[in-house]
Amino acid sequence: MPDTVFLSGDHVDLRPIEEDDLEFLQRQINDPRVWRAIGRQQPVNAAQEREFFENVVCGDETVNLMVVADGTPVGTIGLNSFDWPSRYAELGYWIAPEHHRKGYGGEAARRVVGYGFDQLGLHRIAARVFAFNEASRGLLESIGFTQEGVHRDGEFVDGEWHDVHWYGYLEDEWRSRS
Hints:
Pfam families: Acetyltransf_3. It comes from Halalkalicoccus tibetensis. By secondary structure, the protein is an alpha+beta fold. Helix content is about 35%, strand content about 35%. It has 6 helices and 8 strands. The protein has helices at about 20-30, 30-40, 45-55, 105-120, 135-140, 170-175; strands at about 5-10, 15, 65-70, 70-85, 90-95, 125-130, 145-155, 160-170. Helix 1 crosses helix 3 (about 45-55).
C-alpha cells in the first residue's frame, strides 16, 4: 500500500485513496456495521467500487482520504457536497468495525476539519448522522460540532425509517477552540 501522507496525526495519518485500497474498501462497505451506519442501501461489487474510485475519489468535487494507523488502513474520511460561494462542505467518514473505539475517527475528523477551515477557506462544515449511531454523534460533539436539527424519519435504512441528526461547525468556533 502507498505511504504518501497528506495529513499526519499522532495516531493516524490521512493519505490519498489508491487503487490498491479497493479490496479493503469493498470489503468494509459491505459490512452491515458500516453500510447501515452510513445509509448505504445496496451491496457493492468490485466493478462498482472501481467506478466509485474513478468517478468520485479521483474527481475534483470531493476530498477523500484513507485513515491509516500504523501503516494499516482503518477507514475513510472526506469532505463533499461543496458549495464554494457559501464556503460550505459536508464531512463524511467511517472506520472499520475492528478499529472502533480507538480514537481514530475523532483524530481524523479533527485533522480534516482543520484542513477544511485552514487550507480550503471553508466557513461552515456540516455532518449528518443517524439517531441510532450514538458513537458518531458523540465523536462530532467531542470535536466541537453543534447539533442543529433533526430530520424526523429522514432516511429509510435496513428496513426502517430513521431520524437524521444534522450537525454544524463554523470557522470562528473552530478558531476559538484551536
